[in-house]
Amino acid sequence: MTSSAPNNEGGEQRVKVWDWPTRLFHWLLVLHIPILWFTAEEEMMDAHRAAGSVVAGLIVFRIIWGFIGSSTARFENFVRGPRRVLAYLRGHAPDALGHNPLGGWSILAMLALLVFQVLFGLFATDVNGLESGPLAIHVSFETARLAAECHEMTFNFLLVMIIVHVTAILFYAVVRKRNLVTPMLTGKMAAAYAEPLREASLRKLAIALAIGMAATAWLNL
Amino acid sequence: MNSGAVSIAVLFLLGACGGADEGAPEPTKAEQRNGAVAQNAQASIRARQSHYKEIGAAMKGVGDELKKGEPSVDVIQRHAAAIRDYAPQIEGWFPEGSGSAAGLKTEARDEIWSDPEGFRRSAQAFVSRSQKLHDLAQTGDLSEIRAGVGDLGGTCKGCHDKFRAKQ
Lengths: 221, 167
Prior knowledge:
Chain A has 221 residues and is mainly alpha-helical. Chain A has helices at residues 20-41, 45-68, 75-78, 82-89, 101-123, 141-174, 181-186, 202-219; strands at residues 13-16, 188-191.
């Protein structure tokens, strides 16, 4: 359905779509998830806690960035109502740069799962009561075991979301002939939209980075 | 929000995962039809699961204490004594027939009964290390206690790797 391609109205040019903090967040997350899986499987719990605290900081950063970041990173710009999602599914081109109305919800679901995944990990303990998340000290053994079970279950949900995410990217590449990977690397894509990316100020970036890094540091105390 | 409300919120959150409870579930109808032998086996499974939870809780109790700025040797001694007291009972927690055939969810592997000597050795290792930790706790030397916890934890893991089903 060529009429649905967002680049067919008017002239198309290479525009900036993702700012570098959003891209760096994305690829650091991509790097850490297999590390977290591997260190859990191999029972390398010191490394698992270290990598987990980095992801905790990344998530804190991303949520703040969702409110004060550049335009395409903001929730208000990509979380759309059901009517827009349905319209998009029927082939209407999205009216703004960034996540499409459906993709926006998958980003939100992925972030929510990551929040739960980190929270459960913080309170989890192993069956021996030997290895614990940094906040497990505040809950009973039984509660910490339940957190560990939830930690494992949420990971499976996360895997499903990752598969959906990668499948969608493949769908766009093969069926829609749109490369979504390169823009996540370079920040630029071919598009034709009146409204360009509004980049957040360095001051806001400093605030979001400082809070995210503080979260990671606090968990390593 | 008071701490009670926070606890309720946390429990609610965790409850959302459902079915994650490792504890002894209520018997099903099929289980109720089982004979007395099976019921004894199921009682053994329930009892040992609850005892193991207390051992786990005591292990976590020691670990939690060691993470505090000023660990209470008193608390550590209490937990170490609980573990030491449970340890020699472990071998008796696995009567014949209380494995996967008992009709109750258990992570006890059949190797416990097919390799009784190996299981005995693993259980004995736990007994001796738990006595060691108990003795170290009496000295109040935190770095020694820390090492003792690591050693004892190694025997938990050692036995679990061989005789407890991986989830």
